[in-house]
């Protein structure tokens, strides 16, 4: 839970920085986050099935 709170705080800081970042950097960062969330969701789904 603490990890999620820290991640949300970091996201809030990064959202301010994203307005000044190049579009390519923002797109790559979004893709990395989406991949991370997809892997996390797949692992959670697999853990609940077992």
What does this structure look like?
Helix content is 88%, strand content 0%. It is built from two helices and no strands. The two termini are 23 Å apart.
Key terms:
50 residues; mainly alpha; 2 helices; flat
- Uncertain regions: pLDDT < 50 for 5+ in a row? none
Principal-axis shape equals: flat
Largest beta-sheet characterization: none
Mean pLDDT across all amino acids:
87
Question: How many alpha or pi helices?
Answer: 2
**What's the N-to-C terminus distance?**
23 Å
Number of strands: 0
Helical residue percent band:
over 70%
Structural class, by secondary structure, is mainly alpha
The ordered string of helix (H) and strand (E) elements is HH
List strands and helices in order, with pairings.
Blueprint: H1 2-18, H2 23-49
Short description:
With 50 residues, this protein is mainly α. It has helices at residues 2-18, 23-49. The protein is built from 2 helices and no strands.
């Amino acid at each position: 839970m603490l990890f999620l709170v820290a991640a949300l705080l970091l996201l809030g800081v990064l959202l301010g920085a994203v307005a000044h970042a190049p579009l390519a950097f923002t797109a790559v960062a979004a893709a990395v986050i989406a991949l991370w969330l997809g892997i996390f969701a797949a692992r959670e789904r697999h853990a609940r099935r077992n």
